[in-house]
Description:
Blueprint: E1 5-7, E2 14-17, H1 18-22, E3 30-31, E4 38-40, H2 43-67, H3 76-89, E5 94-95
Antiparallel strand pairs: 1-2, 3-4, 4-5
Helix pairs in contact: 2-3
Amino acid sequence: MSKVLHTCPHCQxxxxxxxxxxxxxxxxxAVCPSCKQESYVPIVHxxxxxxxxxxxxxxxxxLSIMSSMSFFLLGTIPAFIVCVNKYILNSPLATLxxxx
Length: 100
């Protein structure tokens, strides 16, 4: 299985891992191994993913209650994976603006 790397907004090289990108925020940014510059995923992308996953979770809860089958609750797991992939891992990285 090949490792997916994301493009650094500074040097334009695919050097940032999915793990780094997933956990990068403005106060704890991802550091590019190539150019050593910092970047992060803007909070709005995380909020969109969280909102969509919450809505989908309630849809699955409703389906579970209506059909009396808790099996539908397992749908929240792939829904979470899709939301994270679409709205966090596929979002562009932002650069930190240093006050100098």
